[in-house]
Structures are given as C-alpha cells and as structure tokens.
From TrEMBL:
Family the UniProt entry places it in: Belongs to the SLC26A/SulP transporter (TC 2.A.53) family.
Species in which this protein is naturally found: Geococcyx californianus (Greater roadrunner)
Compartment annotation: Apical cell membrane
STAS domain span: 525-685
PROSITE patterns: SLC26A, STAS
Keyword Zinc among UniProt keywords: no
Gene name of the encoded protein: Slc26a1
Keyword Phosphoprotein set for record: yes
Sequence intervals crossing the membrane: 54-78, 107-123, 174-196, 208-230, 250-274, 335-355, 376-398, 410-428, 472-501
Protein's recorded name: Sulfate transporter
GO molecular function, one term: secondary active sulfate transmembrane transporter activity
Membrane topology: Multi-pass membrane protein
Length: 689
C-alpha cells in the first residue's frame, strides 16, 4: 500500500519574521494591558485570592520560612564574604519582587548557599586584586555602608571614579560594590535571555550535572567553613585547587584551634543534626518544622554575650549589624566590566535552579508556570535589589520543601517572610552582635546534608545508568578540586561528549522474526527468533551522520559477515588471473582447476543472502554524509546482486534521501526501495526472483 504525503505550503521566512515584528511593534490599549498583566502576574491572581481558604496556610508558611531565613541569611554572609546586613537586605527584596513577578506559588526565592559561594569567590578574587587583605578577623564596623565611606578598619583604600568624582573606598564597601555589580550584570543576562527566549540553555544542564555541581560546591562550602568551626585564622584561598590548599592550611594551623569555638561547634552540630533527623523521622506528625536554627542562634548569642566569649576566649563574633536601610546606590559600571564573565554562570545556575524547582512544584500541585516569566522574575530579583546593596538570589530547595510542607498556598507567604526579615532589619539586628561565627558555620554545614547525602546514592545511580554516574563524578570532582565555574563548564562539556560518543558507537543488531508474527527483534537479545532465508535485517540505533559513518559500515559488514568492497576486489583479482591464464592458452587456471570449474570459484565463498533490509526506525535524521553512506552501500551491494531495502523511515529521513538523490531523479524506483514496515520489506524480498 502507498501512503500519500501531505503537501505543505512553504511560507517565506522573511514573511514570518516581518509578521512577528509587525505584531510585536504594534501597540493597542488591550495589548498594553495584557503586557502589564503578564509582566506582573500578581495582578492576575491576587484579585482572585480566596482569603478564608488560603490565608492561614500562607501566614503559617511565611512565618516559618522567615524564622528559618534570618539565621540562614546571617550565616550565608560568611560564604559571600560580606556583612550579615547585606544578606538580610537580599532576603527581604527578593521575596517582595518575586511576589510581584513570580508564577510559582510555592517556590522560596532568596539567599542560597551555592549562589552565595559563587558570589564570594568573585568578591575574594577582586579584593585580592585590589590589594585588600582577605583576613576577616578585623575590627568590626559598618559605618554608613556607603561606597563613599572611607575604610576605618582596613589600611588599604581603593580609588573609584563615581560620576566624575574620586572617592576612597574601604574593603567592605568595595566588596559589596563588587557583589552588587556582579548581581546587576547577572540579572541583565537573565532578562536578556528572557527577551530572546534563551531558556533552552537550561536543557544542557542535566540532572547529573546539576547534582554533581551542587555536591562539589557543597564540599567547597564545607571546606571554607572548617576554619570557623575550630577558630583558626588562615587566609581565604583563591583560584584553582582552593579546596586542597585550604585543607593543607587547616592542618598546618590545627594547633592554633580555639577550644571555645571547637566545643561550641560540637554542641551546635549535635543539636542541629539530631533535630533534623528527628524532624525527618516524625515530619508526618509535625505541623511545621522545628525552628532549631533560630533556637540555636538565640541561645548561642545569649551564652556568648553573658559569658563574654569574645573578650575572654577570643572567639570570633558577627559584630555590629546596624538597623534600617542604607541609601540606594547605582552599581558601578567599571566594576561591571570586571565581573561580566563571572556573571554568566551565576545567571544560568540561578535561573536553572529557580525554573526546575518551579516546574517541580507546579507538577506536584497541578498548576502551570511560565518559564520565560520565571526568567524575568529572577532577573529582576537580581537587578532591582542590586541598587539596595543586595547580592544574587535563587530559589532554594530546602526552603521550598519547608514552604510546601507548612501549608503554603500562594506567593503571599513570601510577603510574610519578608515582613519577618524586615522586623529583624529594623529592630532586632543589633542583638546578634555577640553571635559566634562558628555557630553560623555549623548552620551552613548542617544545611548541606541533602547535597552530601548524594554520595550514598552513587551505587544506586550507577546501577540505573553508568554514564550518568560518570558525568556526576566528573562534575563533582571538577567543581570541588578546580573551581565551581569551571566545574560547571566541565560537566556540561563532558555530558555533551558522552552523548556524542553514545551516538558514535550506538547499539547495532541483526533482527530475527518472532514466530508466527509480523514483528522482528534483536537476535542476540531474544530467544526463539527465526531467521528469514536469504534476507539480512540490520538495525542501527542512532542518527546516521558524519561522526558515526565508519562505525555504521563496520558494524554492517561485521554482522552480515560480508564486506562488499573486499568481495568485489576478490572477484576482480580472480577474473584478472583467469584472463592471464587464458591468454597463455593454459587450460588449468590459477586455482589449479579446469576452466569450467573456475567459474564456480570466482567468489571464494557462497553469499547466504540476496536482500539487505536496513531498519531505519531508530535513525532520527541523516546528514549529507549519512545519505552518501546509504547510497554507497546501495551501489556496493548492487554490484554483488544484493538488493538494499529501507524500512520504517520517518518523513525527515525520507526527505533527506530524496534531496540526496537516493531514489533517482524521478523517484520511480522509490516503491521498490522504501517500505513502511520491516515485514513489508521482507515480503517484497521473498517475492523477488
């Protein structure tokens, strides 16, 4: 039977572009309203907010997240190399902006350990290049936080040109200047990716790459916090191999460990881990998670204050955290140029984590999100707060899971969390002056439990897919031992290489017929398959393109036990010898046989098939090399009187074959070369004489 292809009307690409451009550039009141409603989704869902049904869950989850957010924000400031006040600003503004622009009801956007680490590495590098000392055990103080404020706690000053004026900038204000410039550029990248609809970039970050990246970065985070755990003073390592260098410095200075910090760290870790384990075990009985971090911080602060641990035992403390807001300031363009490259991986990682978590929540609770709008939301969660001394944000898995488990219904819970942070910013921040840094380090390390538990999943991961496990291991080691940015790049490149290698050497098979059916399967994988007399059926499970052409031919020749080129060469060789003997008039040929017997010996062995069927069901596309390869085997086997039939080709492959001239100029022999099923091709081969 013959299936007729539909005739598709070809539309000029130029016409399509002009139509889209005309539609995009037109402006009507209705279109303007739709644009505003789409850009600020809060205008769509807030008027439909069911207060009686949603408010209790939103308030409860908002309060719980706010209580968790405050200690985490203060702790993650260590990772970013900034003062705690900036982490609180970040958490406040991110929640407010995502409330206005986000499409996910359950995602918790704010400060995230991985993003904080990436920001901190850039800040540390730029501080070193500017000549600052990375030792953070310096007299504490914030001043007014302004970039024009001179440094009274670091002897080095850095000259900046701001609006044509020279201003001196100390270590702290230069650090937040770098962070805000980095955040602004990352946000701009994310908005541009949203405008040009480049969300597909996230597809190249597979689950194995992301998990390996997160685990490797977690090892780096853990390593960076060890010095706070044991209270030693070592320089913050920078560059490649930071993890190894830091551990060497730790062991060299282990004798200087502060006993007070060691004891405090041990107690805090035991309390936090025990609480987390009990919370995980009895989470179905608890209405909301235990606020262990907040309890630990309050108790530790009280003990440190009244026990005078800083004065008596020289335990490092958080220092002054001022109240209120610092006046907004435009990020410096000169600094943006310095960090433009670093902002790209930061933008991609931030976006990917946010969208993946948004999609996970949307799927679980049966609603839809707009990935492009999520890119705009997280982009503006970076751009706008960068004017208010904040740094990069992203969705965080742990807080998102807590949010969903405590009854969150809509984005209103984010506003409640922001109000909790605002309360701390306005009134409670100075109370954390005596909080030990080792306590903050404990909170960070315990929060890494989920990522570090991935090591336990390696055997199961290996059992499911060996290649994905190798990708995870390579990404994890590269992220931990080289740097987070290079580790991410290595993971992406390596995973893509794995895909290329798998298409270069795919599975190939000869098929046999399932008895009394019209179906065919791999002869090596299934029992009781019968071979078709005089017919070989070859399956190639990958696209056929330039990179796997040679493998295709080698596999075909090996499985059919016939190389047509060698066979043709042997025939020519025997024919040549035969002619030479005949010219000499010798009735005995080169084989030592008579002339009559020689004819039977022109082919060294008998060919056991007369038709080759290529199962193209797994060939998704052909390039020029692929088409030429099929034309080559068609010609070579035809010289041996073996017909080549193609079966189960998709329309894309058929079109490529037509354009490549596989069926001839008028496609007259197409019906004798192309079949819709393997069984049709087998029946045709059997009917051939």
């Amino acid at each position: 039977f013959v299936i007729e292809r539909k005739t598709h009307v070809k539309i000029s690409a130029k016409e399509v572009m002009l139509a889209k451009l005309k539609k995009s550039c037109s402006c009507t009141p209705k279109k303007l309203k739709n644009f505003v409603m789409e850009f600020l989704p809060v205008l769509q869902w807030l008027p439909k907010y069911q207060c009686k049904e949603y408010i209790w869950g939103d308030v409860m989850s908002g309060l719980v997240i706010g209580i968790i957010l405050v200690p985490q924000a203060i702790a993650y400031s260590l990772l970013a190399g900034l003062k705690p006040i900036y982490s609180l600003y970040t958490s406040f503004f991110a929640n407010i902006i995502y409330f206005l622009m986000g499409t996910s009801r359950h995602v918790s956007v704010g400060i995230f350990s991985l993003i904080s680490l990436m920001v901190g590495q850039v800040v540390d590098r730029e501080l070193l290049l500017a000549g600052f000392d990375l030792n953070d055990d310096v007299p504490t103080g914030l001043g007014d936080g302004s970039l024009q404020n001179g440094s009274h706690f670091n002897t080095t000053a850095f000259n900046l040109t701001i609006a044509g004026m020279n201003a001196e900038c100390g270590k702290e204000c230069y650090a937040i200047g770098i962070a805000t410039a980095l955040t602004f550029v990352a946000g701009v990248y994310q908005v541009l990716m949203g405008i040009f609809r480049l969300g597909f970039v996230s597809m190249y970050l597979s689950e194995s790459v992301l998990d390996g990246f997160a685990t490797g970065a977690s090892l780096t985070i853990l390593t960076a916090q060890v010095k706070y755990l044991i209270g030693i003073k070592i320089p913050r390592s920078q560059g490649h191999g930071m993890l190894v260098i830091t551990w060497i410095n730790i062991f060299r200075n282990i004798s200087q460990a502060n006993l007070c910090d060691v004891i405090t760290s041990a107690i805090c870790i035991v309390v936090l881990v025990t609480s987390k384990e009990l919370g995980d075990r009895y989470k179905h009985k608890l209405k909301f998670p235990l606020p262990t971090e907040l309890v630990v911080i309050v108790v530790a602060t009280l003990v440190s204050h009244y026990g005078k641990l800083n004065e008596v035992y020289a335990s490092s403390v958080s220092g002054t955290i001022p109240t209120g807001f610092i006046p907004p300031k435009v990020p410096h363009f000169n600094l943006m140029v310095r960090v433009a490259v670093d902002a790209l991986p930061l933008a991609i990682v931030s976006f990917v984590f946010t969208v993946s978590l948004s999609e996970m929540c949307a799927k679980k609770y049966a609603y839809t999100i707009r990935a492009n709008q999520e890119m705009f939301a997280v982009g503006f969660c970076n751009i706008i707060p960068s004017f208010f001394h904040s740094f990069a944000t992203s969705a965080a898995l742990a807080k998102t899971l807590v949010k969903t488990s405590t009854g969150c219904q809509t984005q209103v819970s984010g506003v409640i969390s922001a109000m909790v942070v605002l309360l701390v910013l306005l009134f409670l921040a100075p109370l954390f002056y005596s909080l030990q840094k080792c306590v903050l380090a404990c909170i960070i390390i315990v929060s890494l439990r989920g990522a570090l538990r991935k090591f336990k999943d390696v055997p199961a991961r290996y059992h499911v897919n060996k290649v994905d496990t190798v990708v995870w291991v390579v990404t994890m080691f590269a992220s931990a031992l080289i740097s987070t940015e290079i580790g991410l790049l290595v993971g992406i490149v390596f995973s893509m290489l794995c895909i290329i290698v798998r298409t270069q050497r795919p599975r190939t098979a000869l098929l046999g017929q399932i008895q009394d059916t019209s179906f065919y399967e791999d002869d090596l994988e299934y029992e009781n398959l019968s071979s078709v007399p005089k017919v070989k059926i070859f399956r190639f499970e990958a696209p056929l393109y330039y990179a796997n052409r040679n493998y295709f031919l080698k596999s075909l020749y090996r499985l059919t036990n016939l190389d047509p080129n060698l066979e043709a060469a042997k025939r020519k060789k025997y024919e040549k010898k035969e002619k030479q003997q005949l010219k000499k008039g010798d009735q005995t040929t080169a084989n030592g046989l008579g002339i009559g017997e020689t004819t039977l010996q022109l082919v060294p062995r008998q060919i056991d098939f007369q038709a080759l069927i290529v199962d193209c069901s797994s060939i998704s596309f052909l390039d020029t090399t692929g088409v030429n390869t099929l034309k080559e085997i068609l010609k070579d086997y035809k010289d041996l009187n073996i017909s080549v039939l193609l079966a189960c080709c998709n329309p894309s492959v058929i079109d490529s074959l037509k354009r490549g001239g596989y069926f001839g100029r008028d496609f007259g022999s197409m019906q004798e070369m192309l079949f819709y099923s393997i069984h049709n091709a087998v029946q045709f081969a059997k009917d051939q004489k």
